[in-house]
Design a protein that fits this description.
This protein has 441 residues and is an alpha/beta fold. Helix content is 36%, strand content 15%. Helix 5 (95-106) links the parallel strand 3 (85-88) and strand 4. The protein starts with 24 loop residues before the first helix and ends with a strand.
Length: 441
């Protein structure tokens, strides 16, 4: 039997007294038992190393010159070390990927190597690792991981054959949700005092613009243009705004704008850094709908970055949301967009744990839009995110439209909101789910 080390406080081996249990742990444990190697990938600061260290018996940091030099000179040390071996920040020494791939070719025993990393240098020549190194995405903390309230219902419940909900009440204020939008789901940042957290998030964005593009070999001739593009993308949060419109918003009044090639480099590099986390359109309905939009819905990896780019503070949100100019649909305010981003982030975490995807639905004319679509087998889960304590008939009209449009499918309709009650409405069977109470399994 393969032993998975679990370090408890009682054993005195936990470095961080307030370690936050991550949804991804169950997947990591399955991978260690069944796979020879896997890579945990995601934006900087999401907690990849902290999670992996809980399972590793040997750790090599590739951003440490001594470790990198040691492994480069004697790669066999990886095979000879106690397993699992964690190779942290492997992208700092990209050749290590191919080295581990060759080791796995020779020995497919489970539980050998864990890699953690973020963006890979542009010029690195890597084999895909297909069949040897499985890639696992890690995102910032979901709402259930933030422990705002007990889990009352899970994504797996919603995707089950029969959804049975007992009415329950929980007290989480709208102000608490606002704070979570701004605190960040990055574990190392969220507990910092408010005045310093803003500085940390600003610094996080500065590093993206001024350092991280260069670290992966992408030249940015005009950092101010990249920053303006990133701010315009933040203003498009939760919309399907075209990239041309984002570019125009980033360069108002400028006759000579960055080329399309340049702006696509911004997009692709930020995606490689896991900073952009768009949701793709749901097109699997096939012939049922012939007029579905095919544009992705824009999100940054964490709504706190959106808020910082737009200079949004808690005071501004609670007192009238400032004067932010949003791009795309105007049906939601900035507070609604940020809440939707928070829900999107959480749903992606829960969906990954259930091996399903998250999509959005929008007809070409925009007459029907649904924030999130998740399907499993014949079940289609349609979700709207609403920063509201009450839900009106108008709020669920698109959910009911989809239900009527798919008579052969089981459509589960839900509104994830900031209200107090978990309940299923009798009139239309729409589930009202407090956002903090939705979990994974």
């Amino acid at each position: 039997m393969f032993y998975i080390p679990r370090f408890s406080k009682k054993e005195g081996k936990v470095k961080h007294k307030e370690y936050i249990t991550r949804t991804l742990e169950s997947t990591v444990e399955r991978y260690i038992i069944g796979l020879p190697s896997f890579s945990i990938e995601g934006a900087k600061g999401v907690g990849k190393t902290t999670l992996a260290k809980r399972y590793a018996k040997t750790v090599f940091r590739m951003d440490n010159e001594t470790s990198a030099s040691l492994i480069a000179g004697t790669p066999d040390i990886l095979r000879e070390s106690s397993k699992p071996v964690l190779v942290d920040e492997w992208q700092a020494a990209p050749s290590i990927w191919n080295t581990i791939r060759h080791f796995v070719d020779e020995d497919m025993s489970p539980g050998q190597f864990i890699l953690t990393g973020s963006a890979v240098p542009k010029k690195a020549r890597l084999h895909s690792g297909s069949g040897r190194i499985v890639r696992l995405r890690m995102r910032p903390l979901s709402l259930i991981e933030r422990n705002m309230a007990p889990q009352l219902i899970s994504l797996s419940d919603l995707l089950s054959q029969e959804v049975c909900v007992e009415p329950q009440k929980v007290k989480v204020s709208q102000q608490e949700y606002v704070r979570e939008m701004l605190k960040s789901g990055l574990p190392g940042i969220r507990e910092i005092p408010d005045n310093l957290r803003i500085d940390m998030l600003n610094s996080y964005i500065d590093n993206i613009v001024e350092r991280e593009f260069a670290e992966i070999g992408v030249e940015v001739r005009r950092p101010e243009a990249l920053r303006a593009w990133l701010k315009a993308y933040a203003a498009a949060e939760g919309s399907t705004t075209s990239y041309e419109s984002i570019m125009n918003a980033a360069t108002p009044g400028q006759a000579k704008k960055p080329s399309k090639v340049t702006t696509m480099v911004y997009r692709d590099t930020l995606s490689a850094m896991w900073i952009l986390d768009p949701i793709e359109p749901w097109l699997s309905a096939g012939n049922l709908f012939t007029n579905l939009g095919k544009s992705p819905k824009h999100y940054l990896v964490d709504p706190s970055l959106t808020a910082r780019l737009l200079d949004i503070t808690e005071q501004k949100l609670l007192s009238g949301e400032g004067t932010v100019r949003l791009l795309g649909s105007q049906t939601k305010t900035i507070i609604g967009r940020l809440f939707e981003g928070l829900v999107a982030q959480s749903l992606r975490v829960y969906a990954d744990a259930n091996s399903v995807g998250v999509y959005h639905l929008r007809t070409v004319r925009g007459d029907h839009e649904i924030d999130f679509i998740i399907e499993q087998g014949e079940t289609v889960l349609a979700v709207e995110a609403k920063f509201a304590t009450q839900v009106s008939i108008d709020d669920v009209k698109h959910l009911n439209w989809l239900d009527k449009s798919l008579p052969e499918r089981k459509v589960v309709k839900a509104v994830v909101y900031t209200g107090d009650h978990l309940v299923q409405r009798k009139a239309d069977n729409v589930l009202l789910i407090p956002a903090a109470c939705l979990g994974t399994t």
